[in-house]
Write a structure and sequence with these properties.
This is EAL domain-containing protein. Helices cover 53% and strands 19% of the residues. The protein is built from 14 helices and 9 strands. The structure holds ligand C2E and magnesium ion (3 copies).
Length: 283
Amino acid sequence: AAKAAGRDRYALFDPAMYAEILREADDRAELERALADEEFVVHYQPIVDLPTSRLIGVEALVRWQHPVRGLVGPNAFIPLAESTGLIVPLGRWVLRQACQQLAQWCAEFPESAGRIRMNVNLSARQFQHEGLVEEVGQILAETGIDPHQMVLEITESLLMQDTDSTIETLGRLKSLGVRLAIDDFGTGYSSLSYLKRFPVDILKIDRSFVDGIDTENGDATLAEAVVQLGRALQLQTVAEGIETQEQWSTLQDLGCEFGQGYLFAKPGAAEAISSILGGARSE
Ligand code: C2E
Ligand code: MG
Ligand code: MG
Ligand code: MG
């Protein structure tokens, strides 16, 4: 027993583990500092109507404008933001930023911007945060945007937790007038009955299905199944990660309504969207 205890003791001082803990504390402090210094920027990626490729909305995607490392993508810091809880203030900042941007576009280009939607990602941690619904309501009120123009993207795994409080929070968000989308749809295991129970409006077909749509036999079938599921439940479908003309036309053949991907535009600074909105005005 003494020997085992000794070993356990030793494990507490495992230098690799200790270094890891220090690194995490460092990263956390760095992320906190970046938030205080407002080093984050929001980029926007167009979402288009597939038949016409007209802009119907944008997705807000956060980036870290790091003083040394340059522009850092969300996959490099969102997981840490989630595990440390910093995603709550960061997510609130993104939401406010995106709503302010939409309000500005609506003031500048009322005709075209009045019709677009702003999609914002919500992580599970944010969703579980007590004050979420009040915060969304407050940001909508302070920016004055039409709640119907706001789409909150949530993940399938969040829905699969399927608790009364999940359903309640979704319902309260819907009561604000916002729309809800399931992001990366198809990567989880939600069943028809799950989907029916939640007040969602939009399914975003995960990029992994779009990737192999013209090459791997299964994928077109899966993408088609998702589109049909959407139709049966009267949900809109958005295909993510469209990179080729072939994927674009296959998705149209399958009856997918909307799309997003490098073929149309990569995420970029707000100005790129402003020029689309400004151009649309003269039509
Ligand atoms: P997501 O919400 O599924 O966003 C779509 C991701 O696919 C974006 O990556 C986008 O740049 C990328 N993408 C779009 N079209 C294409 C394409 O044609 N080809 C390829 N290869 N990729 C494409 P990004 O910006 O790196 O974001 C990654 C993920 O980080 C997002 O996935 C989302 O889950 C998360 N994220 C980004 N911003 C936020 C945020 O403000 N809050 C939260 N909670 N998560 C965020
Ligand atoms: Mg998303
Ligand atoms: Mg996605
Ligand atoms: Mg994703």
